[in-house]
Design goal:
Blueprint lengths: L6 H14 L3 H8 L5 H4 L1 H24 L5 H16 L9 H6 L3 H13 L12 H19 L9 E4 L1 E4 L2 H27 L4 H12 L15 H16 L2 H21 L1
Antiparallel strand pairs: 1-2
Helix pairs in contact: 1-5, 4-5, 4-7, 5-7, 7-10, 8-9, 9-10, 9-11
Length: 266
């Protein structure tokens, strides 16, 4: 994208990135004339709030950095990077060496968080997914509320995603597991890169971009980086794309099968 240096090209890409971040099931409901789903769906409301909030926040950080001149330029660069990071498209409008050397740690960390959160479920985006974080926060809020209510009080936490649903402890637990696996894997990749002599902020950024299958890079990913880091980054990309649960189920099934085979031979 940086080759063109064109606001028109960037806006064109922004439109399709935003279309890709929407759950495809929402489109199915729109085609059936159920337009209310676009406004009532918990994911749609959450992703609009999230992208708007982080765009404003990144713009404020970039203003403080003084790297870009003019509010329009800051908003343009900031919004494009936020949408690209959220949709895990990976389009960059600045060079990798600029991202790694010229951006402050605050901007780098914020972009890494945006990549880690990702977009909506059932979309082209990767990451943890906005709906999972929404479930976690709603469950935390419900847990705090339940501690303040009398023991005899009945509490029900619900949300709307195509239908009215009840948020159960099992759903919240699964969301927390996915969140933990993403962050734990990214942390291991960060520590591995740091142990190999790379900058801490750049290491965290690069590890997150791998586990979320994004395309952003500070320049660490290259043909001559250490073999152990290449292998771990490949594992990160594979596990992150499968969202861990499917991968863990495969390994659990394989280990169980091998154990049964061993027992059968006895």
């Amino acid at each position: 994208m940086i080759y063109y240096h064109s606001p028109l090209v960037e806006v064109f890409c922004l439109v399709f990135m935003l279309l890709g971040i929407i759950n495809f099931a929402v489109y199915a409901h729109l085609f059936k004339g159920k337009t209310k789903e676009l406004f009532n769906n918990i994911e749609m409301k959450s992703v609009v709030f999230w992208i708007t909030g982080v765009t404003v926040l990144l713009s404020i950080v970039l203003i403080g950095d003084g790297y870009f001149s003019g509010f329009t330029e800051i908003l343009r660069r900031g919004m494009f990077m936020v949408v690209s990071a959220s949709t895990t498209t990976g389009f960059q409008t600045i060079y990798s060496d600029q991202l790694g050397l010229s951006f402050t740690g605050g901007a780098m960390v914020l972009i890494a968080v945006i990549m880690l959160v990702g977009g909506t479920s059932g979309s082209t985006a990767g990451g943890i997914k906005v709906v999972r974080l929404t479930m976690i926060f709603k469950w935390i809020g419900a847990s705090i509320t339940s501690m303040l209510l009398p023991e005899t009080a009945m509490q029900r936490t619900s949300y709307h995603q195509f239908t009215d649903r009840e948020l159960t402890s099992e759903m919240a637990t699964q969301a927390m597991i996915i969140f933990s696996l993403f962050t734990f894997t990214a942390a291991i990749g960060t520590m591995l890169a740091i142990s190999l002599g790379y900058d801490a902020t750049a290491s965290a950024f690069e590890s997150v971009t791998c586990v979320t299958n994004n395309g952003f890079s500070t320049g660490i990913i290259s043909a001559d980086m250490p073999l152990v880091l290449k292998i771990f980054y490949m594992v990160e990309m594979w596990a992150g794309r499968l969202e861990f649960i499917a991968l863990l189920a495969v390994f659990a099934g394989l280990i169980t099968s091998l154990f049964r085979l061993k027992v059968a031979k006895r």
